Amino acid sequence: MSPDREPKRGVYMISVAAELAGMHPQTLRIYEARGLITPMRSPKNTRLYSAEDVERLRRIQELTGEMGMNLAGVERVFELENEIARMRRRLANLERHSARVREELEDELQRVRRAAKAELVRYQPPDQALARSVSRADGAVRVRVTRRSS
């Protein structure tokens, strides 16, 4: 298996990872002590760096070397990036939930509309009620309805 297929698998020893990231091995130890990187450990406690770890080391190099950040700034950038990733996952979950609820509401609305259509009769005041008849050309006549007093 190549590191590209398993980016989280620790495969590089510290000297190789340092060379790939363009750093001194002692720098990697410092970053580990600061919590910026957490390599895996072999059964004999040797540090093993993954392809993701090497990319993270390159990102640290970019932030400190090219952008002039100190390690505290790098820590904050990583914290904010993690928070953004969490918020994006939460937003995606909320959007999926919202879509499900919207579908359920639309289904319920259609059900209520069908039920209401079958049950509702248009109201007409008793003195204006129409009844079908063939005696008029339009097929309707006025029927007077009177109420009896009780």
Percentage of residues in helical conformation: 55-70%
CATH architecture of the domain at 1-69, please?
A: Orthogonal Bundle
Computed CA radius of gyration, to the nearest angstrom: 37 Å
Enumerate the spans where pLDDT stays under 50 for 5 or more consecutive residues.
Answer: none
Mean pLDDT, all residues: 85
What fraction strand? 5-15%
Largest sheet: 2 strands, antiparallel
And the CATH topology of the domain at 1-69? Answer: Multidrug-efflux Transporter Regulator, Chain: A, Domain 2
Summarize the structure.
The protein has 150 residues and is mainly alpha-helical.
Tag the structure with descriptive keywords.
two-stranded antiparallel ribbon, Multidrug-efflux Transporter Regulator, Chain: A, Domain 2, 150 residues, rod-shaped, mainly alpha
Any overview of this molecule?
It is a single chain. With 150 residues, the protein is mainly alpha-helical. The chain has a domain at 1-69: Multidrug-efflux Transporter Regulator, Chain: A, Domain 2. It is 55% helix and 7% strand. The protein has 4 helices and 4 strands. It has helices spanning 14-21, 25-34, 51-66, 71-119, and strands at 40-41, 47-48, 130-132, 140-142. Strands 1-2 form a two-stranded antiparallel ribbon. A two-stranded antiparallel sheet has the order 3-4. Helix 1 packs across helix 3. The chain is rod-shaped. It starts with 13 loop residues before the first helix and ends in an 8-residue tail after the last strand. 11% of the residues are buried. The mean pLDDT is 85.
